């Protein structure tokens, strides 16, 4: 009897071992199966999607087989794990196990928004609106309404968003990206303001930001930022008009068609630094850290004028006579709509201090 019972137990053990072996083999085969893809494909996982549902969906689409075993594997190994929503990049050489590791690590596809130095707020909003991976919530909201949504109802938006490349996942809102760029600008401006040179003609970090935006638009060669800043700071200190074309262009708005005339230089707008003394009321562009640093650390010297050579660099002059000679040499022989320096990347053309 005991011997018979032993044979029964041994048989049960063997059957169990075979069953476990079969389960292990099926599970391993399901995990190591290559995804049936001829090219890379994006799998979008939305909030509320479950791994079980995704496995079944992929099986229906013919991407994988044996979703039962994959669901069992997830329940056994990742019970209680929250699946990150977003986009996952599936590639032809990938196995089901590779895909599960992507899910487990939350390696979702990252998209980018690049805000360029010298852009104005209109260009920033256009770049945001053109991204299909961004949830558009601002629509036709006015600039003032946008700033109110950001919790800054009394602020002008120009210059308030830091130029950088921002990474994000599908579904982020346009407002969230603007919040990130706004916070980044505030941080950078505060850091640079704390390390500013002494004796500057600015009453606040915001005035330094306004100056930085002018420097950003006037600079074609990065190494000249500090020298250009020095010219503008000395003009402010001496009570001279800044006389910088980019501010005039900004004040013209959509009336600007690629050139400015003498009449434009006389036309009164809050941004016409040929008729108004001091800084314009707001920045005229988005500014990078280098332009802010230059505004807060202008290069010492005596130059009060500069004119573009036409290659992005400038000739700096200490006197009006020197400046007029440089203008005759570098500008008057050129076409009437010649501007002082090429645009920094995608920004509008910078102009000459007269």
Automatic annotation (TrEMBL):
Keywords: Cell inner membrane, Cell membrane, Cell wall biogenesis/degradation, Lyase, Membrane, Transmembrane, Transmembrane helix
Family, per entry: Belongs to the transglycosylase MltG family.
Documented EC number(s): 4.2.2.29
Zinc recorded as keyword: no
Name of the gene this protein is made from: mltG
Protein's recorded name: Endolytic murein transglycosylase
Swiss-Prot/TrEMBL site (Important for catalytic activity) positions: 218
Reactions catalysed: a peptidoglycan chain = a peptidoglycan chain with N-acetyl-1,6-anhydromuramyl-[peptide] at the reducing end + a peptidoglycan chain with N-acetylglucosamine at the non-reducing end
One GO location term (cellular component): plasma membrane
Signal peptide start and end residues: none
